[in-house]
Amino acid sequence: MPESDGSLWPSITGCRPAYLTGRSPFVATFFAVEDAAHKNYDAAIYALNPMRLNECQAADNIIFGDQSGTVAPLFKAGFRPAVDCPGIVVGVGGTEHDVRQMMQQAAFTIHGIEMPINSLPEAASFLRTVRIPRESKESLLHAITLLGVRGSSLFPDLQNLAEELKGITFTLPI
Q1: Across the strands, what pairs with 92?
Q2: Model-level pTM?
Q3: Alpha carbons 88 and 58: distance in angstroms, whole number
């Protein structure tokens, strides 16, 4: 894995087709291992270097802002199919509009083509994969939880706090 200079965005998938991006390897690990429905499957964390992705796809070695001229046509095409869309994928440093984005340390990729990011030309230069064996998922979840990364901190609302509290067993000294 390339050295971390703050430009690597870990991403996760379990065994379902999901591609979430964030800036924290701890948050990525939580999402990779937390889903009990997929406990019998390996998981993966993907480390994306968005500056290198953007250099390969848009000839610009920067992280685009969500209001950038390069990104705007990609957003528009997602809502207006008639709009001409550039056939690229770019890394975007989004604005944290709500507390959940802030807690998850969210970052994004915007796709102007229907091609998996790991199939893009030069993907090996901007994407790395770390496999998590299914046998390790429970112990990793426990370790991440001890570090304070849990559902109620990443989804800070009463429903997720209540779900977490339901699962805690309290014992009182006698």
Answers
A1: 64, 108
A2: 0.73
A3: 7
